[in-house]
């Protein structure tokens, strides 16, 4: 079973839910932090990182000796990553989307496979939890390829929990596509509701069943609950605002560490998800 | 003309609530929402749309079944696994590179340009606002962010405004890169948590990479004063000016529920007074007043 924890709005508690869920289950669990721009799960699970893997993507490398300056590569590139100046090809690596079109059209065999660093994947154990996360290189614009690379570690024999990035665009899709269940985390405020609606629309384009966790459930208004009722999205867990929880979070502690009775609630949450998943 | 971009790395630290309050305090400014993927500023500024425009993003491949001979060329060429064995393009996986289109021997692939969202010029009670909405599950968010900021600059010039206040997206990827390039300064809103500090350090690296000076504001500082101290120390080390500490105050949420900023909701509260001090400190900061200094490359250590 693969579960993505997503949200639309940032800062609603995705990492809190993903890490506490992982720490509460007795089964073999794998946590993949796919919020690769700002991964935070490791700050709560304290994994012992054993391996670091560089992740790169294709960019063209031009052999000036062979290049005739024919401009075919420049013409096929929709991302303006190649230009020809005074008969020489200039490559703008940060604009390249790694489609390989330039390699295909070059008749002189002057383009070879170079690479650009996207970031790294670090992995190791956090107690019994198998842990891995991606970290984009600072300055790298594209996160979906790194997210996909982290997701190649998914192990169907285990329960995989994915901590997804915020938003509703391509990084979220990369972190939720093909999973069995999406757990949306929101807060009951107008911002939380607005971004939840966008998030749910994005997940629905993928036809994945989803459920809701309402975090800081006693602040704000009833908008989120009314919406969930109307759209028949089951509310699977509510976490009230407690200063104690907020303070524990601030120093990197799990809810289940300071209030072990919450373990049962997270186990129950998992059970419900298995019933609702496809 | 100056542009202040409000970012945070981590989401939910209070960017939008603060931006809306600054909007109420700013003079001769216009507002720009550069969080095009999950924008919220409009919920507090209640814009009345004056001008609505389509955002045309990239194109997507579409295989014409009647022309296709199923030769398999496109399947081999596509590096995004976007073409099924039945020769149907998956619009979500398609990157819009057009390689299959250009190299199809039958010319059986169309490449229609897609409407990926909308952008607007609107009136609010504090001035003009430029904002956008990216289509659900779309790509090209960076492109739309750049477009919104260009339009905001054009509007500010036309109206003779001297400040653009831009609400930025979370993270450090494509939309954030598009949101900060060429800005006068960044205001980094941080919460005093391990994740807040971690994410802020990545944002500081990004700011350095793109040579934009940063200011730091700690929100909800009293949730963990020890961590707030660490953030202040970090800001000092990186040469980013601390412009203030705002206490944890449920008034922000109450104001939001009524679609107001805290200045409107609680004009005489101590928190509002603190936010005003932060705003004044931002306006008088060195980062916002470069006095002809063009090269800010050494601004962040």
CATH topology of the largest domain in chain B: Rossmann fold
CATH architectural category of the largest domain in chain B: 3-Layer(aba) Sandwich
Largest interface between protein chains, with number of residues from each side: A-B, 61 and 59 residues
What class do helices, strands and sheet pairing of chain A give? alpha/beta
CATH class categorisation of the largest domain in chain B: Alpha Beta
Q: Helicity level of chain A, as a percent range?
A: 25-40%
If helices are DSSP runs of H or I spanning 4 or more residues, what is the number of helices of chain A? Answer: 11
- Biggest sheet overview of chain A: 9 strands, mixed
Give me the CATH architecture of the largest domain in chain A, please: 3-Layer(aba) Sandwich
Structure description:
The complex is a heterodimer of chains A (278) and B (301). By secondary structure, chain A is an alpha/beta fold. Chain A has helices at 14-24, 42-45, 72-76, 101-105, 144-151, 170-176, 190-204, 223-231, 243-250, 255-258, 262-276; strands at 2-6, 29-33, 48-62, 82-85, 88-91, 111-126, 129-136, 159-163, 181-186, 210-215, 235-239. In chain A, the strands form two sheets. In chain A, strands 3-6-7-2-8-1-9-10-11 form a nine-stranded mixed beta sheet, sandwiched between helices. A two-stranded antiparallel ribbon of chain A has the order 4-5. In chain A, β10, α8 (223-231) and β11 form a beta-alpha-beta unit. In chain A, α5 runs parallel beside α6 (170-176). With 301 residues, chain B is an alpha/beta fold. Chain B folds into two domains: 2-56 and 117-284, 3-Layer(aba) Sandwich (Rossmann fold); 61-111, Alpha-Beta Plaits, CATH 3.30.70. Chain B is built from eleven helices and eleven strands. Chain B has helices at 15-25, 41-45, 73-77, 99-103, 141-159, 174-180, 194-209, 225-237, 251-257, 262-265, 270-284; strands at 2-7, 29-33, 48-59, 62-63, 109-110, 113-124, 127-134, 163-167, 185-190, 214-219, 241-246. In chain B, strands 3-6-7-2-8-1-9-10-11 form a nine-stranded mixed beta sheet, sandwiched between helices. A two-stranded antiparallel sheet of chain B has the order 4-5. In chain B, β10, α8 (225-237) and β11 (241-246) form a beta-alpha-beta unit. The two termini of chain B are 26 Å apart. The mean pLDDT of chain B is 95. Chains A and B meet through α4, α6, α7 and α9 of A and α4, α6, α7 and α9 of B.
């Amino acid at each position: 079973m693969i579960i993505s924890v997503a949200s639309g709005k940032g800062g609603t508690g995705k990492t809190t839910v993903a890490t506490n869920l992982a720490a509460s289950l007795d089964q073999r669990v794998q946590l993949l932090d796919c919020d690769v721009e700002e991964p935070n799960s490791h700050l709560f699970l304290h994994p012992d990182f054993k391996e670091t893997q560089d992740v790169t993507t294709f960019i063209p490398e031009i052999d000036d000796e062979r290049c005739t300056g024919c401009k075919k590569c420049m013409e096929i590139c929709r991302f303006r990553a190649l230009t020809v100046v005074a008969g020489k090809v200039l490559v703008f690596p940060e604009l390249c989307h790694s489609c390989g079109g330039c390699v295909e059209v070059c008749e002189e065999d002057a383009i070879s496979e170079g690479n650009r660093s996207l970031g790294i994947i670090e992995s190791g154990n956090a107690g019994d939890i198998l842990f891995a996360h991606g970290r984009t290189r600072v300055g790298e614009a594209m996160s979906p390829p790194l997210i996909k690379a982290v997701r190649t570690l998914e192990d169907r024999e285990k329960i995989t929990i994915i901590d997804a990035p915020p938003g509703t665009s391509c990084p979220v899709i990369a972190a939720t596509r093909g999973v069995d269940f999406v757990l949306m985390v929101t807060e009951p405020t107008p911002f939380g509701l607005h971004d939840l609606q966008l998030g749910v629309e994005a997940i629905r384009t993928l036809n994945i069943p989803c459920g809701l966790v309402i975090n800081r459930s006693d602040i704000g208004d009833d908008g989120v609950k009314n919406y969930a009722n109307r759209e028949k999205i089951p509310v699977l867990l509510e976490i009230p605002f407690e200063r104690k929880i907020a303070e524990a979070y601030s120093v990197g502690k799990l809810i289940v560490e300071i209030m072990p009775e919450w373990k049962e609630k997270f186990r129950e949450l998992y059970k419900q998800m298995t019933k609702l998943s496809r | 003309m100056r542009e202040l971009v409000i970012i945070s790395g981590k989401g939910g630290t209070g960017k939008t609530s603060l931006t809306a309050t600054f909007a109420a305090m700013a003079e001769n400014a216009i507002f720009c929402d550069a969080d095009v993927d999950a924008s919220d500023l409009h919920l507090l500024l209640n814009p009345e749309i004056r001008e609505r425009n389509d955002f045309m993003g990239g194109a997507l491949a579409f295989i014409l079944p009647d022309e296709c001979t199923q030769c398999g060329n496109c399947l081999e060429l596509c590096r995004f696994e976007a073409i099924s064995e039945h020769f149907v393009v998956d619009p979500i996986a398609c990157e819009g590179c057009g390689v299959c289109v250009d190299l199809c021997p039958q010319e059986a692939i169309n490449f229609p340009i897609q409407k990926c969202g909308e952008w607007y010029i609107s009136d609010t009670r504090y001035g003009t606002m430029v904002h956008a909405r990216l289509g659900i599950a779309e790509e090209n968010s960076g492109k739309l962010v750049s477009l919104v900021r260009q339009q905001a600059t054009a509007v500010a010039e036309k109206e003779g405004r001297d400040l653009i206040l831009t609400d930025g997206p979370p993270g450090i990827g494509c939309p954030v890169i598009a949101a900060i390039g060429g800005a006068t300064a960044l205001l980094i809103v941080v919460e005093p948590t391990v994740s807040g500090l971690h994410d802020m350090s990545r944002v500081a690296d990004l700011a350095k990479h793109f040579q934009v000076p940063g200011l730091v504001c700690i929100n909800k500082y009293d949730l963990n004063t020890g961590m707030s101290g660490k953030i202040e120390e970090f800001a000092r080390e990186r040469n980013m000016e601390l412009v203030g500490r705002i206490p944890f105050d449920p008034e922000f949420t109450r104001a939001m529920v009524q679609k107001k900023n805290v200045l409107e909701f609680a004009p005489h509260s101590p928190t509002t007074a603190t936010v005003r001090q932060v705003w004044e400190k931002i306006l008088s900061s060195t980062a916002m007043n470069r006095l002809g200094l063009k090269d800010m490359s050494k601004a962040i250590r």
